[in-house]
Each structure stands twice: as structure tokens, then as C-alpha cells.
Amino acid sequence: MYEMGNQEVKAIKKIISKRKLFRYLENSECDLFEKNYSKYLSIKHSALASSGTAALTAALVGLKIGPGDEVIIPAHTYMATAMSVLSVGAIPIIVDIDESLTIDPKALEDSCGPLTKAVIVVHMWGTTCNMNAIMKIARKKKLFVIEDACQSVGGGYEKKMLGTIGHVGAFSFNYYKNMTSGEGGAVVSNNKEIIERAKCAIDPCHFYWQGRKNSLKPFASNGSRASEFMGALLNIQLKRLPRMIKSMRAERNKILNSTKNLSNMGISHSLLNSKDYDCGNYVFLKFNNTLDAKKFTSIFPAPIAGKTGRHNYTEWDQILLKEGSFHQSLNPYKLPQNKKCRMNYDKNMCKSSLEILNKTIMIPTDPKNTKKDTDNTIRNIKRAALAYINKENIKIKQKAIDKGKFDYSED
Ligand SMILES: Cc1ncc(COP(=O)(O)O)c(C=O)c1O
What we know:
Layout: H1 6-18, H2 29-41, E1 45-49, H3 52-62, E2 70-74, H4 80-87, E3 91-95, H5 105-111, E4 116-122, H6 131-141, E5 144-148, E6 156-157, E7 160-161, E8 168-172, E9 185-189, H7 192-202, H8 206-210, H9 228-258, E10 267-269, E11 282-287, H10 290-299, H11 317-320, H12 351-358, E12 360-364, H13 371-389
Parallel strand pairs: 2-3, 2-4, 4-5, 5-8
Antiparallel strand pairs: 1-9, 6-7, 8-9, 10-11, 11-12
Helix pairs in contact: 1-9, 2-9, 3-4, 3-7, 9-13, 10-13
The chain binds pyridoxal-5'-phosphate.
């Protein structure tokens, strides 16, 4: 959930009036954003890209992942996480999530094989993965850790910013994210070589504008360069981000504190790995089973995590059909280098994840919500819980989040 207003309008007008829409000209907004974002995250390097998918792909290129490598990913993530692995010629291995809706560290450890080179851990829905456990396993198994923080821009784990704990982090700034430029993404790392390679993946011609480092041998790649419109919007959006995250987290924690006592009605809270530092985009309510979650949502309007379409592996057609590329000669599932990689997928392979997802409902927070709005949500949840226990046939009206409504009143 982002906010937008007059400052963004002014920033875009400025770019148009200067007629400098390309990022490699002087006083670049993209350069400024990369500098500011690195500072915000306390990381050495950031590189903008045209999307989160491009950023994830660039992160894998940065780590030299390719044919012959397996990359572990969770059963619950937007399908782009899986697609990025295939786009570099490697094979995704899909493993279970745990009650936090993020990758289960035990499933990660158990699924490591001799060809496993990396794991993409995904901080879903504004929450965080169990990074302490993950980094411990990664050290033991010698895995690279890529943090997909596309859905958790601005969040942290303990005292570190998401995206900065593993070897490389990737972010999305698309329309649905905490900060947006319509489309957009970024790769971040403390490792210069990873970022140099990622930059070449993002723009194979960037040397022409920025000069080639002798350490890097150039290679062919698709372009996914950011524009100055993106940079200009993101420079404003970044200033809004800390306040928004703080406000969503506070709203989420208030709702959690006020609904603690519902466990005797069979409604509990999902596990949060870093409650004081994550983004707080959602309150997750966990039911005893799928049917109970469904019954509750017929009273209180909220999505069930297991019914969020392409966020679940059962909907990733390209993987299930093993259509890993636009051309069969490039299809990772057919490459001789991948012959020894594991690639048996079926819709029942992560049953435990589906069970968890189908009994979890998601109630969004909003930085624009007032105290009255939050109190209403709490009252509505409690009212719905009573109705659900007493089998009353009512429908609660909950304030909808209006993503299309921009706020021009702030400046
Ligand atoms: C977890 C996750 N990874 C990757 C992406 C890809 O980002 P984009 O849509 O900017 O390509 C998304 C976007 O929704 C996402 O939610």
C-alpha cells in the first residue's frame, strides 16, 4: 500500500520540462535514488531495474547461478520468483512454508541436494522469513541467499533491513507495493562483483554510459533499464516510506493485541518472525481448518491466503508443464546440464503449505486509516467471531482499501 500526491505530480512535471527522461544524463534521479536507497538500507550498492522480476533475475545473474544449479524457493510466493530461476537456466525446487507463511527453515535444510546452489527466501505480504535460522542453514550447506523483498519494501528483521541480510536482495516497486513507480525494481548487495554483474544483466550497454570496470567481463543480457520517471517518483516515495511502515505496523499490532482472546473461539494469529520490524501490511488470522476460515469470510470480507491465485505453486503452469523458456532449445528442463537436477512436480507436493494457506485469512492495514477505522476493524472482527461461533447468518461491512485514491492534500 503506497501513498501518492502533489509531490509526485511536481516531480514528474519537472522531468518533462527538463526533457531529461534518460537515466544516464547529468543530475540523474535514478542515480540519486540508488544512493538514497543504499543509505536507507545501510547497504553498499543498489541498482534500479524496470521490475521486481528483472531485479530477481539480475540477482541470480550476479551470483552466477545458471544451468546445472538448483535454487530452492517457497511454495507460496508470486510466480515471478520461480520464473526468475528458469530465466537464468537453473531449476527451481519448491519447498513448504511454515505457519509464518514464509519458507520453512526445516524444509529448506531437508531439501538441499548436491546441486543446490541457492535459496530465494520470500518475505511475503509485508512479513519476514526466519532469517536467523535461514542464514545458519545457508552457512552449513554453503548456499547463496537471495532475499525476495518485493512484497516487504521498507520492512526489517530484528534490527536489519530486509534485502540486506542475505548475499543479495531484490525489491519490486509495482503498483501493489509499499512504494511504487507504477513498475520498477531494485537489486542490492554489499558485494561489488554481484552488483556489477547485476547491472550488466539490467543493461548490457551501461558500460557505454558509466564506464566498464576492468574486473567485469561483459556478457549478453535483456535490457530492463529504469527511466527517470521511475527515479523521480521513487525519490519522493522513499521519503514517505518510514512513516507509512510505522503506521501500518502500529495498526497491525493494535489489532493483534485486541484480538488475542479469540483463541477460545478457534481463531489465533499466524506466527510473525519479526513483529517489531516487519511492514505490518496484514493481520493474519488462523483458523482450525479450511472450512472454518471459509465460514468466517462469508461473514467478514477478507481473502484466504490459499485463494490468492498465482501466489501458490499449484497455479504456476509454466513449472507444472515444464515450459521453462520461450524456445525448447533454451528450456532448462531439457538442458543436458540440468539432467541430474530434481524436477518432479505435482499439485500435492506441498500439501502442508496448502493446508496452512487455506486456513489463514488476511486483513489489510492502511497508513491512511484513522484510530476510528482501526477500532472499527477490531469491533468487526470480534462481532464476526461471535456470529461465526453462534452460526448467525450476517455479513459485516468492512471499509475497503481504495488503491486508486490519491491524496493531493498533503502539500
Ligand atoms: C514476491 C514477489 N516476487 C517478485 C515479484 C515481481 O515483481 P514485478 O511485478 O515488479 O516484476 C512480485 C510482484 O508482485 C512479488 O510479489
